Amino acid sequence: MAAAAPALYTLPIAARPRRTWAQTAHGLAFLLVFLFGCAMINGSQFAVLLPLRLLPFRAARKAYYEGIRYSKGAFGVLLVLSCQWFAPTKLVLSFETDGLGKFAPEEIESLVQRDSEGKVTALNLPQKTVVIANHQVYADWWYAWALTYFTGTHRDVFIVLKKSLKWVPVVGWGMQFYNFIFLARSWASDKLHLSKSLSWLARRAEKEDSPLTFLLYPEGTLISKDTRPISKKYADKLGIPDMTHTLLPRSTGLHYSLRSLAPRIPNLHLLDITMAYPGKSVRGIPSLEYGQDFYTLRSIFLDGIPPPAVHMHIRKFNVNHEVPIGNVSSSNPSVLPNGSAKSAVEVDVPETEREAFEVWLRDLWREKDKLMGRFLATGSLDAPTALGDSPVEIEVPLRVRHRYEVLDAFCFFVPAILGWAWSKLR
Fold this sequence. Notes:
It is built from 14 helices and 10 strands. It has helices at about 20-55, 60-85, 105-110, 140-150, 170-175, 185-210, 230-240, 250-260, 290-295, 295-300, 320, 350-380, 405-410, 415-425; strands at about 90-95, 110-115, 120-125, 130-135, 155-160, 180-185, 210-215, 270-275, 310-320, 395. The model has no long low-confidence stretch (mean pLDDT about 90).
């Protein structure tokens, strides 16, 4: 009896059979739906929201702000819906209960909300966070944003992008409406812009009492055969061992970000996510092979070969009490950092404080590296319980919670939302 053919996701992309006509049709359908959704969202921003921004009334500015949040949430729903329709998968979540960034037992019990059928509908994680993660594939950000759909913060996600993406038609325009931060990749000019942008976002989030999720990848790039030697060279320069399953993190951008946000958000939390994907087996992508060998945006959504699960292990830190960002007590939360202020503690970091944070982040990344090794050995990022039982994991299928949210994904509710916001403001 012939052995069953291996699942396509277990094969490196280069070893998979040629693309079929069915996959081609699948890819065209995905592009049609996804690009239509992006065009609808961006079109509503220009046609409905931009005129509000031009009006010199406080109520109009408030309506614009809520409208942009809604349109960003619509994009978050579109990401989840794209998974549901074209690349079905699930998040497999576990939470640290023992080491750095551990959750208290009473927190674990209240983390998950389920409906009458037992399906996960919400995750009770902090609402104002900086989210960091290891970076294996370009879809990492897609799944991280999908996670925020269940935490209720998908309307308030902010990311850092290359400045060259700012004017890409539709997508780049939408990113500008979303107040994403564009950097020129020159730290001398970027550091003040980053700090000022984040300080403004933090001050607004506190004033409006709205969530904030800032997503950052400290490794700076994907782990690959090209970046692995760079990490090794950096480790040799520092005189420390290199990582095995991740890249050495760069601390500067994260440090500046936390120093800009923390003085303006007293309850800011850092969520550290370790992400792992099945490869040649459910136990992950083997050493000497890389995530992009198995999963690209094209292979996942156009070819319809997603990972069967995306594993995430989450740690939580209170930034102002558990993260060594240094002394920022002299920061004035109501004032944005500027180039002429030598006392701008957000961007003037003493060397001892910089080194302390760098060591802390590197130690955190070594814990992450160990988790990746555990995943290769056991197929789980979490450890067995003290009684030897299987790890505690929560499965969250990537599906929208309500059918009407399909309309949300295409921004069909913008006029209704604006009418509601206007009625609240009168």
